[in-house]
Amino acid sequence: MVEKLEDSGAKVESLVPVGRFASLQAAREYALVVLAMNLDCLITIQEDGYLIHGEDGFQEAIREEFRLYAEEQSLPREAPGIPVFGSGVNLALVWICLLLFSLASQAENPAVTDRFLASSVAIWGEGEIYRAFTALFLHADLEHLMSNAVLGTLFGILVANSFGPLRGWALILASGFLGNLASMAIRYPEEALSLGASTAVFGALGLLVGAGLQEVWRARSWRRGMRTVAPLLAGLMIFSLNGIGDPGTDTLAHLTGMAAGLLVGLPTAILLGRRVTGT
What we know:
By secondary structure, the protein is α+β, with helices and mostly antiparallel strands. It is 63% helix and 10% strand. It has a four-stranded antiparallel beta sheet, with helices on one face. Strands 5-6 form a two-stranded antiparallel sheet. Helix 7 (142-163) packs parallel to helix 9 (198-219), helix 8 crosses helix 9 (198-219) and helix 9 runs parallel beside helix 11 (251-277).
């Protein structure tokens, strides 16, 4: 019995054996290698397996292609795309513990609040830049803290899945820090005071938007845009829940925090994507 993979018009006598295989599936797979070389081939059934016949004069070239193909098939294959990292829940718990510790310190010593909250005059007039960072750990009361802790943990886990736990939480705090610097700079030289982790929470939203934009660009498809739209919708929902323009809500800091998250999140997501795909 003879199985032709291609009606080449060549006589069987002009073809010579180039490979023997135990299964028909393997024989067909390697016959495609021969056909890819633009050469004729035949598969014949033998008592001990299946024999591939190739054109006379190309035996060595075909066997070399078989060897290279076998080596290629044996190499480990990595799935392309952006990896999904761990949730970073442990880091979120550490963050919440730091917030509770800071609140306890504020209750024990009210001077802590005045010394470390964000102040436009102190930051840009007196050079106390650290206040833009320390203010992220201070809160007015337990209710204020728990509101930011719940939202911050939720969005922090999503950021950790996109950027990695350590990198993700570092980017969240960096976004909050830059957001506070920007909001205080806009208000300076007038005195403005602010405290709370909400700037970092909105920074996390900006990071998610940046990751979503990178995915849309990589896939060249706006069907993937829901990953970008969802964080924006979540931000608008939080704005509405907290009350835009409410005296207790620092709307400007929320906006600058999200903008800072987007500015640091998008290039970071692009670099991560290039590292994974090797481009």
